[in-house]
Amino acid sequence: MTYAASPVFRGLSIALFLIAACARPAWATATFDEVKREFRPSDTLILDRSGEVIQRLRTDNTVRRGQWVALPDISPALRTALVLSEDKRFYEHSGVDWRAVSAAAWGNLWNTKTRGASTLSMQLAGLLDEDWRAAAGGRSITQKIGQTVSAQLLERSWRKDQILEAYLNLVPFRGEIVGIDALSRTLFGKAAHGLDEREAAIAAALVRAPNAKVAQVTQRACGVLKTMQAPAKVDCDGLDLFAAAALQRKSFDATEGVAPHLARRLLSTTVRPEPVEGFAASRASTGQARTEIPSTLRAPLQRFAVQTLTQHLRELRGRHVEDGAIVVLDNATGEVLAWIGSSGELSGAAEVDGVLALRQPGSTLKPFLYAQALAEKRITAASLLEDSSSQIPTAGGLYIPQNYDRQFKGPVSARTALGASLNVPAVRTLVMVSPDAFHKQLRAVGLPLRETGDYYGYSLALGSSEVSLLALANAYRTLANGGRYSTPSFSVRPEPFDSAQDRLVEGSAMKKKASTGSVRTGSVQALDPGAAFIVSDILSDPMARARTFGTDSVLATRFWTAVKTGTSKDMRDNWAIGYSQRYTVGVWVGNASGAPMWDVSGTSGAAPVWAALMNYLHRTEPSRAPAPPAGVVQRQVTFADAAGAPVEAARGEWFLRGTEQTLFAMDSGAASAYRKRAEGQNDSKTADNRASVASRITAPTHGTIIALDPDIPPNRQRVSFSAQGRDLRWLMDGKPLARGAQVQWLPWPGRHVVQLADAGGKVLDEIRLEVRGAGVRDARAGSGASK
User: Fold this and answer.
1) H/E element holding 174?
2) Is-contact 530 632, C-beta < 8 A?
3) End-to-end CA separation in angstroms for the chain
4) CB of 480 within 8 A of CB of 331?
5) By three-state DSSP, how is residue 467 classified?
């Protein structure tokens, strides 16, 4: 009897034909390339501008699926182990191993335990189409027949190597782990091409029983090793310990790389569809996931920046500094070339992105103040500003700014005042410009101040507002571009960052590359180009900052750069922002918690990191000073005080056309006016009474209200007392204070009586004053105003 004549066989053939007709699912017509293209890793890769991976982020929490791995990049030992374990005649059959089917049927007839007859092609068919997947009770007869037919259809259009490659990338191994890339990196901490025979045997054992216990996995792995080698040579001793250790390992971190903060920022702008099951469902999904997102970063620069910041912060740990952030911008295009949001493992708040966090910028706002004053022709770079004790009346009392070193320099030029970061001349300049006008200027260069200029008052000159590192660095990039402002971008699409709204601006066109040497389109003139040029020249002048930083500080570079440091109140934030011909680099160090640093200055905090980055960027690339724009002229100038003595050395100075002059001097009238504003008048006592007193208090005035500067630690503030006479003794609230005509007093909140006495203790003069503000704190809590 032949099967062809059998009615049962004919019926079975008809059933197989009908099932085959219905068993051509959507994927049956798909090519290998289509399946590979629709593969979705559970991670998204962030790439730098050249395609190098700089960050990997877990974006699908339902499964752990790595990258698609080509068959040549998979260990030969694993390929051998898998075929020997799952489908010995894989390269011989056409989708169904009929010899294995016969053996399985015979075993079932005699109730003998045999290996299943499912081939790798049949298993892959089940992975590609959920209709053929086994349920909790196993596959139905319809599913088994459908899987068999589908495997044969698959073999007709795919090569054997394609079937094996797809299987290894789609097969579940253990728990949430799917695919060989996730398995090898999780269990063995290596890429798939590096698996040895022992590791390959364990992987093959997991294919058959993904969630088996360690003992069962070890037993099966030992069996696989014996099929790969001569059984007599196989020693499975220690395999159980190795398997137990591997199955407990979780080395495939959820995220790793050198740009975690930028990666999350980029990912938030990319639409990713919900996780889907099966190839057909993936094809039906309407969204298009992005498994690789390109960025504008430079991977070598990013890694160098991370290393430099980490090394420097380790050196500062003894000064209570644990956090830092860096951003590097291309001046012409606005592209972000490096973005380091935190110090990583050194930080107690590594998730906080220091590039976007709002912090007080300290003296880093001064260049924009002087640029505005220059543009409005209120001052020139050579104008003399009085650096002396100043008491500025405000609605809340007297505002008494102090310099970083608590010393006054007397008359100084605006160039020196900005370069040396003197606070008092900056506040005097803001008085000329007004806080409200300066507030508008800061917003024009992209600094999104939350309050009005009147809210900040004159402390705005010293950086009492809050800005982000990205916005501040981009504002300096505006100076580098001759006063033209445009938004930075960090996506290749790109999606520029609008600092005024702390969001991304969608839909902008690609901008001109830096190699063109031109500022990208879409920029606006936010600062007068002549004023921006002069300020850049001041910030690049080592002699201008010599009075505070010396002539050979870390800020000096062998190529042209312009830089400014800043320190916020209570030493909570330290900044170094500067630019070269092509790049702008911004660095912040401090503590994400807001805790103050200890004894960290403008040149010991952020500046060393800034200098290292600039040197790295220009190790082979020159940086030249910008050419003066139209409307800027240079003249030789000299300086003199009220007595005619030189105030500063003669030099060549830049001017906006129409403001140039050759001599700058403080005449006696001007000097007297400055002193009078600083000292005030004792208006509660008549001139006749004053004339009758030979020794008297000349400053401060009777009834003065002193408001402690919120930008300076209270224990670093001083009030100057001055008097005329000889052999003078000062009494504070009846207790001896000091001797001499000049006294520096540490202010203490409350109402006080200040008396002037002679050597015999007789009171010669008396005033009353009031101090408002916080009391003195521990000296370790900070030191000084902005610098």
Assistant:
1) strand 172-174
2) yes
3) 103
4) yes
5) strand
Helix (H) / strand (E) element for 736: namely strand 735-739
Q: Residues 517-527, buried b or exposed e (16+ Cβ, 10 A)? A: eebbeebeebb
- Higher-confidence position of 683 and 733: 733
DSSP assignment of 687-714 equals HHHHHT-SSEEEES-TTEEEEPPTTS-G
Beta bridge partners of 750: 771
Residue 484 backbone dihedrals phi, psi, to 5 degrees:
-90, 125
Q: What is the pLDDT of residue 114?
A: 44
Q: Which domains does the chain have, with CATH numbers?
A: 25-44+62-257 (1.10.3810.10), 305-640 (3.40.710.10), 680-781 (2.60.40.10)
Do the strands 43-47 and 292-294 form a parallel or antiparallel pair, or are they unpaired?
A: parallel
DSSP single-letter state for residue 436: H
Residue 18: per-residue pLDDT: 46
- Could you please report the per-residue DSSP string of 336-370? EEEEE---GGG-S-TTS-TTTS-B--GGGGHHHHH
How many CB atoms are located within 10 Å of the residue 641 CB?
Answer: 17
Q: Could you tell me the pLDDT band of residue 279, with boundaries at 50, 70 and 90?
A: very low
What does the DSSP 8-state code read for residue 465?
Answer: S
Which of these, 753, 718, 426, lies nearest to 564 by C-alpha position? 426
Q: Are 575 and 362 in contact (CB under 8 A)?
A: yes
- Residue labelled with tokens 């070598």: 300
Show the tokens assigned to 588. Answer: 């912040």
In DSSP terms, 772 is beta-bridged to: 707
Q: pLDDT tens for residues 528-584?
A: 999 999 999 999 999 999 888 887 889 999 999 999 999 887 788 999 999 999 999
Task: Check: CB of residue 579 under 8 Å from CB of residue 476.
Answer: yes
Quick one: how far is CA 276 from the chain centroid? 33
Per-chain mean pLDDT for the chain: 80
On the CB side of 74, how many CA atoms lie within 13 Å of its CA? Answer: 26
What pLDDT shows up at residue 759?
86
Q: Which residues of 75-104 are buried (b: 16+ CB within 10 A; e: fewer)?
A: bebbbbbbbbbbbeebeebebbbeebeeeb
Amino acid at 406: R
For residue 172, the surrounding DSSP H or E stretch is: strand 172-174
Contact call for residues 370 and 383 (beta carbons, < 8 A): no
Residues contacting residue 429 through CB under 8 Å, at least 6 positions apart: 369, 370, 373, 378, 379, 385, 414, 417, 461
pLDDT of residue 238: 86
